Amino acid sequence: MAQTVLIVEDEAKVAELLADYMQQSGFATVVINDGALAKQAFIRDQPCVVLLDVMLPNRDGMEICKEIRACSNVPIIMITARVEEVDRLLGLDLGADDYVCKPFSPREVVARVKAVLRRTQNGNTAEQLPLKLDETRYTAEVNSQQAELTVVEFKLLQILLSDPGHIYSRILLMDCIYDDHRIVSDRTIDSHIKKLRKKLSVINNGEDIIRSVYGVGYKLEFA
Ligand code: CA
Q1: Of 113, 106, 62, 66, nearest in space to 85 by CA
Q2: By the 8 A CB rule, do 54 and 80 touch?
Q3: N or C terminus: which one in the chain shows less Cβ crowding within 10 Å?
Q4: In angstroms, rounded to a whole number, what is the distance separating the alpha carbons of residues 223 and 163?
């Protein structure tokens, strides 16, 4: 049976977009547009992940997050309207697992959902992978050696790492990196990947972790 993602979002278009992408990724979805109904839906549908908008009618996402956290460890990804809001929410220590800002790429949200599930369901798989990321420093670590990455390189690696072995197309990667739909060519991604590979191979005994799949895109592969 498909795992359910509970989407609490009052903007119908955003909710629909998220639901579509989640379904394409094999999840069942439940959409709630009223804050007051979120807790009830959570109990009824037993979702594997909650995508929770902050600004909602009748009860805001912060209260809902606290309520759910009081009774469950389900991964919660908060959806915020502004980047500055993330800092404020972090300060409140609501117990959310991740934050995404509008406007977001729905594919990135799917990647975050998968990442959060991997972290929580498989007893911290991230710990077992030879590659670790530090989001606060934009560094990657392999064999206790660190590489400093640019923001774009870090984001690319984060996406690849969200599902190692999965082949990500250049278009998808571009979509995730440039939310503002800037016109960038495939080569931009290729050149970022090239630099990223170089940095990673330096800390991985000269071995390449990123594989290019001819004509398709890239994936991570650990020996
Ligand atoms: Ca809203």
Answers
A1: 62
A2: yes
A3: N
A4: 16
Ligand 1 centre and the CA of 35: distance in Å? 10
Task: Report the predicted TM-score, pTM, of the whole model to 2 decimal places.
Answer: 0.56
Single-letter amino acid, residue 146: Q
- Residue 173 CA to ligand 1 center (angstroms) comes to 27
pLDDT in tens, 139-183: 999 988 999 999 999 989 988 887 777 778 887 788 767 766 566
**Nearest Cα to Cα of residue 132 among 120, 149, 110, 109:** 149
Task: Kindly give the distance from the C-alpha atom of residue 80 to the centroid of ligand 1, in angstroms, as a whole number.
Answer: 8
pLDDT at 124 over 60: no
Strands across the sheet containing 139-142: 131-134, 139-142, 145-148
The rounded Å distance from CA 187 to ligand 1 centre is 37
Distance CA 44, CA 38 (A): 10
Indicate whether 208 pLDDT > 80: yes
Gap between the Cα atoms of 82 and 164, Å rounded: 30
Instruction: Name residue 93's amino acid.
Output: D
Complete edge-to-edge strand list for the sheet that includes strand 168-169: 168-169, 217-220, 210-213
